[in-house]
Amino acid sequence: MQGSIGVDEAGRGPVAGPVAVGAVWVPKGFDFELLPRVDDSKKLTEKMRERAFRAACALVEKGILRYHVALISAEHIDARGITDAVRTGITACFAALDADPATTHVKLDGLLKAPEAFVHQETIIGGDASEPTIALASILAKVTRDRYMVSLHETSPAYGFAAHKGYGTKQHYRAIAEHGMMHEHRRSFLKKFSEGLGTN
């Protein structure tokens, strides 16, 4: 069946937790009115993202949509870099979606690229704000990653992951200064924030 895939990532900048890469397949002519507001995930409230996420999952259950979110670990990011981590996530997403490269049009946000076999691919700067398929991928990636960070908070509450989702806030830096780094911290990123670690 002909269709298109939107691709985006969430969590490139935090100092803890995985980066999430989301890809969603929609059939040709898909009506986005079937979903609540679909927009760049950063423009939506948490409740709006959750609402859209649940609606998308309902369409997945009906066989209308397919999606996959790959979470690539902080350990991978430290060992091979964030660019490689995102690329690894994209590869995992396309393997899971099992779409036909010949009949699938791929739209990716920013500077992302799909596997070379997908000859009909288009990279769009700011695509999460202008292309609904990319926007939906951004929502799926963001909600999946946020839920992961909340679950991490339940096992390691001292760091406050449920509040800041791993981003470099003053609260987070204070927690690191008090408790040290854990396995979910991106040590390669925290080198850049050494000044912050010393003053917060």
UniProtKB/TrEMBL annotation:
Record GO terms (molecular function): metal ion binding; RNA binding; RNA-DNA hybrid ribonuclease activity
Chain residues that bind a divalent metal cation: D8, E9, D109
Entry similarity comment: Belongs to the RNase HII family.
Organism of origin: Candidatus Kaiserbacteria bacterium RIFCSPHIGHO2_02_FULL_50_50
GO annotation, cellular component aspect: cytoplasm; ribonuclease H2 complex
Keyword Cytoplasm listed: yes
UniProt cross-references to Gene3D superfamilies, sorted A to Z: Ribonuclease H-like superfamily/Ribonuclease H
Enzyme Commission designation: 3.1.26.4
Location relative to the cell: Cytoplasm
Signal peptide interval: none
UniProt remark on cofactor binding: Manganese or magnesium. Binds 1 divalent metal ion per monomer in the absence of substrate. May bind a second metal ion after substrate binding.
Name of protein: Ribonuclease
Predominant cellular place of this UniProt entry's protein: cytoplasm
SUPFAM superfamilies for the chain: Ribonuclease H-like
Record GO biological process: DNA replication, removal of RNA primer; mismatch repair
Swiss-Prot/TrEMBL keywords: Cytoplasm, Endonuclease, Hydrolase, Manganese, Metal-binding, Nuclease
